[in-house]
Specification:
The protein is mainly alpha-helical and 181 residues long. The chain has 2 domains: 139 residues; 36 residues. It contains 5 helices and no strands. Helix 1 packs parallel to helix 4 and helix 2 packs antiparallel against helix 4. The longest helix has 49 residues.
Length: 181
């Protein structure tokens, strides 16, 4: 009976570890794809990266708490206490099995925590870069049209001057023909 309870608990731990691993993978893919997409403005990019960073920090804090719980649960006296209600002819094996389960779960949580820390560092770097771009864009003068028309200004003047000359020439020609007849 005790081994069945441990097997069931082991399965639950494995399922939980699988779900959390999939969630972490999804989070990393979402963070990478969100960073790869261009937004309408650098300010929006900064806002999105800040939201992603807050989300990652929240998950990181939750994993730290879980790792701390597991560190506490892995102590021999706490293992002893958790198995106090389960009778067995081989309590040493039961305690060792429980310790292995907790160790495996703790190692999985620590691996996820390491992945999240890497993701957080990348997001912080991306956020710093996006803030620099947003600042540079806000510091630029708002001369989007004059910047492009500054190069085209001489051509615009030549073109409009030529058009005016054609209009005057055409008007003069039309005037002459009308009044000559």
């Amino acid at each position: 009976m005790a081994f069945r309870l441990l097997e069931e608990r082991w399965r639950q731990v494995n399922v939980m570890r699988l779900k959390s691993s999939l969630a972490m993978l999804f989070l990393l893919l979402f963070a990478v794809s969100g960073y790869a997409q261009e937004s309408a403005s650098p300010a929006e990019t900064v806002d999105k990266l800040k939201a992603q960073l807050l989300e990652v920090q929240g998950k990181e804090e939750a994993l730290r708490e879980r790792a701390q719980q597991l560190d506490e649960s892995i102590k021999p006296e706490n293992i002893e206490r958790s198995l106090a209600g389960i009778g067995s002819t081989r309590p040493e094996e039961l305690r060792e099995s429980r310790r292995r389960q907790l160790t495996i779960e703790r190692d999985g949580v620590l691996a996820q925590l390491k992945t999240l820390e890497t993701s957080r560092q990348r997001l912080e770097t991306a956020l710093a870069n996006a803030e620099i771009v947003a600042y540079q864009q806000s510091a630029r003068p708002i001369q989007v049209m004059s910047g492009s028309s500054g190069r085209c200004y001489p051509w615009l003047m030549i073109g409009s001057g030529g058009l005016a000359a054609l209009a005057l020439g055409g008007g003069a020609l039309f005037y002459r023909r009308k009044f000559r007849k």
